[in-house]
Prior knowledge:
- By secondary structure, the protein is α+β, with helices and mostly antiparallel strands.
- About 35% of the residues lie in helices and about 30% in strands.
- The strands form 2 sheets. Strands 1-2-3-4-11-5-10 form a 7-stranded mixed beta sheet, sandwiched between helices. A 5-stranded antiparallel beta sheet has the order 6-7-8-9-12, sandwiched between helices.
- The chain is globular, with a radius of gyration of 18 Å.
- The two termini are about 20 Å apart.
Amino acid sequence: MRIEDVDAVESLTRDTFHDLQVRTRPADWPVPRRRSAERRAEWRRRCRHLVERDPGGCWVAEDRRRLLGAATSLRREDLWGLSTYAVLPGTQQRGVGRLLLDAALGHSEGCLRGMICSSHDPRAVRRYRLAGFTLHPTMVLRGLVQRAALPVVEHVREGSPSDADLLNTVDRLIRGAAHGPDHELMARTHRLVLIDRPNGRGYCYLYPDGGPYLLAASNRRTATALLWHSLAEASRDEPVSFGYVTPEQEWAIDTGLAAGLQVRSREFLALRNMTPPMPYIPSGHFL
């Protein structure tokens, strides 16, 4: 993949993921909307970041007429992760997906561990399992936050670039590898809050409308406080959601239930040579 491919890859993933969401959404969920102009711009920034930082992990497939598929992946210390994987609807049976995933996995050579936030597309799930990843079923929590349930959360402060060492230290403790340069981008696109206390350290990037985009903490008590803080920032009128919660993350499930959210079984966390990080809520893009 080259920088000049980014716009076409964004368009392909927008159509591909929207098609998947429409086909698989629960009946009582709203009809999925395509990416807004703001979200499209954010997606392109994220993709350019990966092409620049991990050129060997970002690939496209094309024929003489058009783009057929794309995969972006990253290496951070000894952890490899798949950020995006999409094949144009109607072309999945041509072997494009297998070739793309094989190319991206070449970027993982020498990495001890691997992580993928997998969709529920059975073709993608099959590919990840055949590549040696263990499939951990996950849950999504979604709904309107019950404001009366919100507790008072203390010791949370705004994060800044000067907190990079703290963030990377927590990363290494929980998932075995720092996010490194990804923190620079996430801090520009998402609000960062953290707790730095003798009895617990952790951080959370928030979606613009509240809820956790990525959360990591040294213990469950700190993680729970950060999750409550992120839910308190949610809209009063729009549902909040977060996913890729494995069964081990009962602190997150209990907090979501206490906030009035519903729990559904959906998607997978695919891991290689590692157990589910905990307490941790991964980002689908930066893992």
